[in-house]
């Protein structure tokens, strides 16, 4: 099945069908619907369609992230922009606000060929990846970074979340912690589960208890998360160490400790995945696992541009892992 | 002069000229150059050209900012995105890295009709606004926000930098400071000069000395800025209060104080324009003038969309000022 045959089936010109599939403004929406319905019906192959898309390069790539006001995604955007500027690409930015429906809506907008490729960090709520599959089938290159899923065969860029989780937990153990709690952001988000896996492995390796109630899932708003942390820190057997999967949960922990008059690091040691340049100036300064956010952005954009320009196979299915770094500060002294 | 006459002059079809002016891929670059040269030569009028651009709406707006990893531009992006999502617009993001040449290059890329409108916060180095004038003459709506220039007649969105500067300086005076220094980021950047104006007005109002060497222009890199602050704080008549025009300069001041074993707020009180949610957790917590960053982003995008959709006159030339807020914390205790 090629574009020519599809046009014959539809009794339309080659050019009309091609334009309809590119969502051209010259074609009426009723014609577009007809063309797309027929293309689906005839299981019109990915490659020819993709190639028809690719003929008209937009030199634009899309970045879809859960949030932007964040110690991590800021430097990621810088990394992406550095490649875009080098290679002459434009960057569209979208936010899902952790909402799967918004993620799906954004993908619908991008299916019609507005961009040459997409970089995505999954929303917290995303449990179904049909919209990613559909985009892939249309031949539009897609890269997952940071928050990924192994269910989709595309190139992925992450940091070593599990190793970072082991490093963080072992650091707390070395500093004498006996009851270490883990603050997760969600059971669905890969970065959180990866870090939790590392936490559990480290506890096991050091033959330490792993009570289930030492893992607190903080997937609510700020106020709700603080209540959960407060509950944890007012328990009789309260933890003497906290490993926060993301920086905001460490900040909430600091705030709760102030309220409860708990001293960090004397009463509680705290470590978190954090990239903020302010972590060193907090009271006390925050021991952190620092992710290579800028490098992850650069790598994601570089791989995507190569896929778009067909310098690499678009069926690439691998994981690029960039190492995080432990930075010891006063919160675990 | 209209498009038809321009086409006649060039001996080209109406459609070719129109497409060339829209930078269509169907037209060769040599033809495009010829068309643009002739259009300039004949002083081809703004409105018809603008309307030819406007016929084909891209539903895309561009955001051009100096940096993204920043307490201010993060929430600005969120504000812009909230309007874009409401109104069905796409947002392209560009960074100038404080470089006028990059700003000009980005404007060149956007002249050909890739976007319906542009929001710009000027780079530190921008001293010539010819590229802004040119864009405006092409009829593409432009909004300036945060870092603006009064030389260009377009809609502008800022916070009340001068009033904020007065508030910050008077707060230091109330807290007993006798020698107050001001850390500027550049003599060219409107937000910095506006805040400085407020600083000078407050000193005058309270009949305080205004020695020139109490204004330090920190327009270098981090290391260089810290040296300047160190020099200021090791002087015999060192200041007992510092008003930092932006958050990063407050952070540098904290770092220098640690090095010099100066205690904040005992030896030196510090206030800054700052939007970071971490300011409250710094050691000591930072007294701040908090800008309405999210609201400024929303307002900029809302006005731009109205201009694009011709709900407002595109010759709008006014300033929307959104108030900042003083948040007293321990650094001025």
Describe the structure.
Two copies of one chain form a homodimer. With 333 residues, chain A is of the alpha/beta class. The first copy, chain A, folds into three domains: 3-54, no CATH class; 56-159 and 293-323, Response regulator (Rossmann fold, 3-Layer(aba) Sandwich); 161-291 and 326-332, 3-Layer(aba) Sandwich (Rossmann fold). In chain A, 44% of the residues lie in helices and 16% in strands. Chain A has twelve helices and twelve strands. In chain A, the strands form two sheets. Chain A has a six-stranded parallel β-sheet with strand order 2-1-3-4-5-11, sandwiched between helices. In chain A, helix 1 (3-10) packs across helix 2 (14-21), helix 5 (73-87) packs parallel to helix 12 and helix 10 crosses helix 11. The longest helix of chain A is centred in the middle third of the chain and has 16 residues, at 190-205.
Task: Please write out the topology.
The structure is a homodimer of 333-residue chains.
Chain A: H1 3-10, H2 14-21, H3 29-41, H4 46-55, E1 60-65, H5 73-87, E2 90-95, H6 100-110, E3 117-120, H7 130-137, E4 142-145, E5 155-159, H8 161-174, E6 180-184, H9 190-205, E7 215-217, H10 222-233, E8 241-244, H11 247-260, E9 269-273, E10 287-290, H12 293-308, E11 319-322, E12 325-327
Parallel strand pairs in A: 1-2, 1-3, 3-4, 4-5, 5-11, 6-7, 6-8, 8-9, 9-10
Antiparallel strand pairs in A: 10-12
